[in-house]
Amino acid sequence: MFNLAGEFFAVDAACPHMGADLSNGSISGNTLTCAWHHWQFHLRSGDGLTRDWARLTVHRLMREGDDLVLEIVDSTASTESPTGDLSGQDVTP
Question: Hey, which residues does 33 pair with through a beta bridge?
Answer without folding.
Answer: 26, 40
